Amino acid sequence: MAIQFRRSPLYLILLQAFAAPAFAEDAPAEVVSVVIFGQGNTRQVQDVSKKDLALALPGTSPLKTLDKLPGVSFQSADPFGAYEWSTRFSARGFNQSQMGFTLDNVPLGDMSYGNNNGLHISRAISSENIGRVTLSQGAGAVGTASTSNLGGTVQFFSSAPTDEFGVTGAQTFGSNKTYRTFARVDTGLLSSGTKAYLSATRQRAEKWKGTGSQNQDMFNSKVVQKLGNSKLTAFFNYSDRTEVDYQDLSIEMANRLGYDWDNYAPDWQRAVNAAKGIYTGKVNSLDDAYYQGSGLRKDSLLGATLDNRFGEDVSLKTTAYHHSNQGQGHWYTPYSSSSNGLPIAIRTTEYSISRNGVIADLTAELGQHTLNAGFWAESSLHTLTRNFYDATPLDTNYFLSNPNKTGFKQNFTTTTTQFYAQDTISLLADKLKLNVGFKSPNVKINAVTIVGTRAAGDLTASKNFLPQLGLNYALSKSDELFLSFSQNMRAYQPGVNGPFSQTQTAFSLSSASIKPETSKTVDVGYRFKTDNLVGSVAAYFTRFDDRLMAVATCAGIVGCPSTFVNVGQVETKGIETAAMWTLAKDWSLFNSLTYNDSKYKSNYMDGTTLVAIAGKQVVDSPKLMFKTELSYETPQWFGRVGAKYTDKRFYTYTNDASVPAYWVMNLSTGYKQKNLAGIKDFSVQFNVENLFNKQYFSTIGSNGFQTSDPTGTAQTLLTGAPRQFFVTFSGKI
Fold first, then answer.
1. How far is Cα 680 from Cα 168, in angstroms, rounded to an integer?
2. Cα(first)–Cα(last) distance of the chain, in Å?
3. Which residues cross the membrane (predicted)?
């Protein structure tokens, strides 16, 4: 979609830029340590640096690098953690859809697979261009542009263009015919005070089981312009991603068909026979396999930020952005037939998004007070369509058009405004910091049904006063205590799985009684550092009220409308610890331990049936997680080996079915030279994912969570990738 700057917030930013009076220093250089433990913050915060990101397999989702941190659980069916249908990220029992995500302060929504208000970080920017990731396990900063962060927030920050001209390149080869090419050109600092970079990424990889590929092409660009004491930063990112799906499994299917069972492709005749009820091998069900499924996404994301400095004590940062998305999810369904009589059709779920927004933040230093206030406003148009096309064994991994039938079509217009203000007060010779703030979110959704029987109407989620309080007390230069309290709200979601996925009758009955989900979180902790040891210990308590749940009316894959009900409270309490030891000059050891107890506090009614889940553990919420990581680095050699333990996880609300606990170990090692045959910063890096070839269930709830599964037949699990090998060559000229 073409952007009319004269009508766009970006135009206002550019006008403000040219009116800016002065010149600002660049942001500080990126931190070089692997994990920063949030010193000085009034809440639990940890940073992962570019150095840590660089040791991961190139192309790895930055969310996967956060899996080492306390409180975090990350799951995916592929070695990169980028296969979106399978990606699951949670912190302290809150899942991905209950958290907030931003890139350079631009909201990414809840990064859900069924796009409605954002995009996944793996499409927003190439992992090589990320400079830092900040995780707030309990609550993000009060000004974070998110209305889904009941739990924590994750903030991604792109790296800045370099002051020196350079061309950076990296080439990865590996298992499953993987190759990934990354190239970036930095202009260096020009005489006009401008610096910029352009980068391109191309990745091709076959699935580790079955047939099909997961491919992506990306373009990233960023420019920084100094304007006196101010600075204008703008970026444009584009992504074109196509991924062929893995088949969802049940425990019974994995036992009968094997961990490496997948869809039929390219065996077209077997898929047609199965659709007719003629099964071969160990297949005994229509849903044991389909011919193929896939997901296609195209995204454009651009933004501009003007950081105005008015003297030493006042600054105004204004960001405007635009995001457009086109997406299709393909499924060869044996539940519908093609117009030519074949017992299979291609069912698509089709998405489009057009978002425009602006964020403004004013900060003033007044003696002992740091005052901060601002707003976020966004307008989003989201269209959702269910279409059917004639099936064919030919390649259909492209955007289909001219359907035979449309099941439903809805348009959603979402208007978001959020105001916030806070004061950070420094007392006792800066030993004590008090933080007092609040935000006022308001999210209005208007849904229009064009085709079908799904619900239309209006819903508003708003809170006039969501407080956030915190303190930090420095016991010494090396030790500090922190305490925080926050209250958050999750707005209703438009799209394929939100309240408007109900029938009109069900929506009319439920819309008057449902309330937006809210949470209250208390954090208390201790941070410490010595010459050889740095770390933190935190305890937390969260109460989650008015939990909304879609009660399924048929199997998840069929896509029948759900009914939304308020199922009461969840309470979470736990302890997180993390520490990094410098064992010797070249050796360090990182450990993190999490104990998380998340339980449902209320039963609920499924129609006329009481579902007794009070006291049961929250689904996909491991009680115990432990991460250990040993690192070695000299001027020429580097290496890291890490292992993660994840406790058993329930995928039913009644806790009668779970997947076992497991350990997974990964290895990264290599050689580097500052200059080799004219190539600067040359390195060769080897990565081994799942070093000991562990068989385990990674993603659970891929087709939603079940009330009960006593026979282990709920088809809502995905297996983790087996051992994978990769080598990467990189350098700069």
1. 9
2. 36
3. none
